[in-house]
Amino acid sequence: MTYDVTQLNTPCYLIDRGLLQKNLDVLDRVQRDTGCEILLALKGYAAWSTFDQIGKVLVGCAASSLHEARLSEEFMGKQTHLCAPAYRDDDMKEYVKIVDHIVFNSANQWQQYKTQVQQQVRDTGRPMACGLRVNPMHSEVKTAIYDPCSPGSRLGITVDEFKAIDLDGITGLHFHTLCELNSDALARTLKAVEAQFGEVIKHMDWVNFGGGHHVTRPDYDVDLLCKLIQDFKQTYNVQVYLEPGEAIALNTGFLMASVLDIVHNAMDIAILDTSASAHMPDVMEMPYRPVITGAHLPDVKPHTYRLAGPTCLAGDVIGD
């Protein structure tokens, strides 16, 4: 099917379902070869119009908020796993009705909601697995804002804090240390996790390896990932979950934009109908330069423009 992209109303995301299927085929291979289960992390990709296709391969969604959990339930209709730094009382009343796995970020949160969760299970007969997020304090992410294991991180329980926790009712552990990384980073992370929490894992039913696995990137070592999962499952006899977000839709689509105006201030500046802060926050947070079809680095081609957004934020700049 051919589209005339000039007729699209911008800004919009244009997703190629054929490219999306290629990514899903890679993830399906990992599931088949290892017996692990892969979830779509909604914080990385939440285009529900493609959930019909994704749901044929993945087992469900990983949510980190009430709206994400509802999105999973209503539009994916499979497993919903929940993990967040902290939960609200009013939200918890909804969570216990719809999530299948719930991960607590601290001993305080686990004790606060343990009775409520267990009572809901007894009242409804609907199973709900409870887990704890651990922090192995092993950093692989170079950009500090995306490093869950940086000193002073609020994310996960360190081994010293973990020793005092009552694990009655806890059936699994969750860790998340990666961001857009290859499987060699996971290999190093697993050594740290096993060294600190290996004895606990022996008594668990499942372990969630979190997200940040760039599984569908062309240079990603899928064979190593499969071996790591297979060895871990064999050693501990647990179910393993992965919850990539970006890897689901990596290189499968485009953000279409239009130029609204061109102004000059030391250089030519094209003001788009697309905002870095609203549509591409990673451009400012990571930071990184988005790839633009037909473009190049500044001063390589005859004309150089700065692409900027339409908001009143002075730093809403996409790049040169």
Arrangement of strands in the largest sheet = 2-3-4-5-6-7-8-9
Order of helices and strands: EHEHEHEHEHEHEHEHEHEEEHHEE
Helix content: 25-40%
Number of contiguous helices: 11
The tally of beta strands, per DSSP, is: 14
**What Rg is obtained from the alpha carbons, in whole angstroms?**
22 Å
Q: Which structural class should the secondary elements be placed in? A: alpha/beta
Strand residues, percent: 15-25%
Tell the overall outline.
globular
Q: The biggest beta sheet, please?
A: 8 strands, parallel, barrel
Overall residue-averaged pLDDT value: 95
| Alpha-carbon distance between the two ends | 33 Å
Low-confidence stretches: none
Walkthrough of the structure:
The structure is a single chain. With 320 residues, this protein is α/β, with parallel strands linked by helices. The protein is 35% helix and 18% strand. It is built from eleven helices and 14 strands. It has helices spanning 17-34, 51-54, 66-76, 89-98, 107-124, 159-162, 183-201, 222-236, 246-249, 276-279, 281-285; strands at 12-15, 37-41, 60-63, 79-83, 101-104, 129-133, 172-174, 206-208, 239-242, 253-256, 259-264, 268-272, 305-308, 317-319. The protein has an eight-stranded parallel β-barrel. Strands 11-12-13-14 form a four-stranded mixed beta sheet, with no helix packed on it. A two-stranded antiparallel ribbon has the order 1-10. β7 (172-174), α7 (183-201) and β8 form a beta-alpha-beta unit. α3 (66-76) runs parallel beside α4. The longest helix is centred in the middle third of the chain and has 19 residues, at 183-201. It is globular and about 65 Å long. The two termini are 33 Å apart.
